[in-house]
């Protein structure tokens, strides 16, 4: 297989640093045509032999310098937050540069699974992938990772997604409910494993990957132990009660302040409802952990 040329939009978020680390790890060197092009808004970022920074203040389809830099690139990876204007701009850019593969900023929750009981959740992200597919000639692969697990942050210190508050635990569903988690180091590697896959045409439209499986109780116990606090369950709702409340809230309009509640309800729904998957594609991208070892919670 010939080496693939890659461009990345949005390297400054949670995932960007780990994709950079994966690029610099050497694991994928035999498959990547260097330098990887990194689209950034920040002036003065120093390029290297592996990464060429291209400054574009607006990430605009009217930026001829940007379009020229992206023409002929095999793979475009998007690591931005969900933003309607930015997504629309990226769609217009992709229509001009026509990469073979586009990896959109999906990650996290399997939105089509959530749509089966709470239609419209994060519809912007789903629509974005579909819009690019409609351009034609571009393979779009949504990478679904379930929840990130980040020491000092997600699921270690930021624990609202399992109902932990200063008062105790507001439980929704079964405390022993399982769900998948992904370490960001693994997500960075997966992005490159998808981007450098031997046969782009044979890739599924949507893949599930994860580092580990945990339960709600595992997260509560780890937090309790690390912080030296006793956490009692102070309220309980069934998964069904949570789902009904989720739908009501969503129908009133998406509220970022309710996001952790949404995630908690999705966890409570169980298997193949958004955050716990009956099938993972880990082996497709890292057979027998031959490229790297998956992280643990």
UniProtKB/TrEMBL annotation:
GO terms for molecular function: oxidoreductase activity. Coiled coil: none annotated. InterPro entries: NAD(P)-bd_dom_sf (IPR036291), NmrA/Isoflavone_reductase-like (IPR051609). Keywords: NADP, Oxidoreductase. This is NmrA-like domain-containing protein. It comes from Candida theae.
């Amino acid at each position: 297989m010939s080496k693939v040329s890659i461009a990345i939009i949005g390297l400054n978020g949670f995932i960007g640093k780990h994709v950079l680390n994966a690029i610099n790890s050497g694991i994928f060197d035999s498959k990547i045509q260097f330098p990887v092009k990194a689209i950034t808004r920040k002036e003065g970022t120093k390029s290297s032999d592996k990464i060429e920074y291209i400054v574009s203040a607006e990430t605009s389809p009217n930026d001829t310098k940007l379009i020229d830099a992206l023409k002929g690139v095999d793979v475009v990876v998007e690591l931005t937050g969900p933003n309607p204007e930015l997504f629309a701009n990226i769609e217009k850019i992709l229509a001009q540069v026509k990469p073979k593969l586009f990896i959109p900023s999906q990650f996290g929750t399997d939105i089509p699974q959530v749509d089966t009981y709470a239609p419209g959740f994060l519809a912007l992200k789903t629509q974005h992938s579909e819009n690019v597919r409609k351009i034609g000639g571009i393979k779009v692969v949504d990478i679904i990772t379930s929840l990130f697990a980040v020491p000092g942050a997600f699921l270690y210190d930021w624990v609202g997604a399992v109902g932990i508050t200063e008062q105790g635990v507001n439980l929704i569903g079964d405390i022993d409910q399982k769900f998948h988690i992904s370490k960001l180091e693994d997500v960075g590697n997966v992005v490159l494993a998808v981007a450098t896959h031997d046969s782009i045409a044979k890739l599924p439209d949507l893949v599930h990957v994860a580092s580990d499986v945990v339960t709600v109780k595992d997260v509560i116990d780890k937090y309790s132990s690390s912080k030296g606090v006793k956490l009692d369950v102070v309220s309980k709702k069934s998964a069904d009660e949570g789902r009904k409340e989720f739908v009501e809230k969503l129908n009133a309009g998406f509220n970022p302040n309710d996001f952790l509640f949404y995630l908690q309800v999705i966890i409570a729904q169980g298997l193949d409802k958004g955050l716990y998957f009956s099938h993972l594609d880990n082996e497709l991208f890292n057979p027998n952990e031959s490229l790297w070892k998956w992280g643990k919670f």
